[in-house]
Write a structure and sequence with these properties.
It contains 11 helices and 8 strands. The protein is α/β, with parallel strands linked by helices and 271 residues long. The chain has one domain: 3-Layer(aba) Sandwich (Rossmann fold). An 8-stranded mixed sheet has the order 3-4-2-5-1-6-7-8, sandwiched between helices. α7 links the parallel β6 and β7. α1 (2-22) runs parallel beside α5. The radius of gyration is 18 Å and the shape is globular.
Length: 271
């Protein structure tokens, strides 16, 4: 009996790998460690900039219980990906068209109690079902803050891990904890500094994090790749309150130009 279950599990893993390899969809997990670093705002604006580069983008709001991308995209979803995982709707029901060409939102459920879905493989299944559609060029997964079990499940799905941090000491402490965690399984972390006025500041801190990793003997093959910085601008909070994307409304704003460079570096780094 055990051998039969084991064989079925191996077939499932093989099928999962096949779906990834046969699909054009690149999966990117956007995470942070610490909350309040502007991760969801950057995720939505990255999606817009990717769409402007002729990429068809799906954005999965994977912040369990605190989903807010539907607010940013000014949508009122009737169904969320939790409804799909619980068998209450079909996959097509959770793929929501936004007002932006080539951007689809898969909404999360705010206030959701993580009760019915407790084991891993459920999130794995959701991502693979989306990837298997082979209709998106990029699937952006916006995780919640912290390094909890649910965040780790999404991180395990792909080698494209994009972390958002700031120069705040507590944010840097959390992003280093993220580095330690993923270095055991991954070989690379892409790092973006938000609310950071100069490119060189983020570059310098990234070098310090690399040196700290070497000193503490993390995986020697593990690489921290600096993607760029985004300055803190009053225009970002203003457009956010209006439920608009700063990269669209203020294309020549410093932050928009900086984020565009981040996206260009991201595209070059995708696996």
């Amino acid at each position: 009996m055990f051998e039969k279950i084991s064989t079925q599990a191996n077939k499932l893993v093989s099928l999962t790998n096949k779906l990834h390899s046969n699909s054009k969809t690149k999966v990117i997990v956007v995470t942070s460690g610490k909350g309040g670093v502007g991760k969801s705002t950057l995720t939505s604006n990255i999606a817009y900039l990717l769409s402007q580069k002729k990429k068809k983008v799906a954005v999965l709001d994977a912040d369990i219980g605190l989903a807010n991308l539907q607010v940013i995209f000014n949508l009122k979803p009737k169904k969320t990906f939790m409804d799909y995982l619980e068998g209450e709707c079909e996959l097509e029901d959770i793929q929501l068209k936004t007002s932006y060409n080539n951007i689809t939102l898969i909404a999360g459920k705010s206030g959701y109690q993580y009760s019915k879905i407790k084991n891993s493989m459920h999130f794995d299944r959701l991502v693979n079902d989306l990837v298997a559609l082979n209709k998106y060029d990029v699937l952006l997964i916006d995780t919640g803050a912290g390094l909890n079990e649910q965040v780790q499940e999404f991180i395990d799905i792909t080698d494209n891990i994009f972390a958002v941090t700031t120069t705040d000491p507590s944010a840097l402490t959390d992003v280093y904890a993220l580095m330690k965690m993923i270095s055991m399984k991954k070989n690379k972390l892409m790092l973006c500094f938000n609310f950071t006025a100069k490119y060189d500041i983020g570059a310098s801190i990234t070098t310090s994090l690399k040196n700290l990793a070497l000193k503490n003997k993390l995986n020697r093959n593990f690489m921290v790749q600096y993607m760029g910085n985004v300055s803190q601008m009053n225009s970002i909070s203003t457009t956010g309150r209006l439920r608009k994307l700063f990269a669209k409304e203020l294309k020549q704003d410093v932050a928009s130009l900086e984020l565009n460079l981040v996206v260009e570096n991201l595209l070059k780094s995708l696996k």
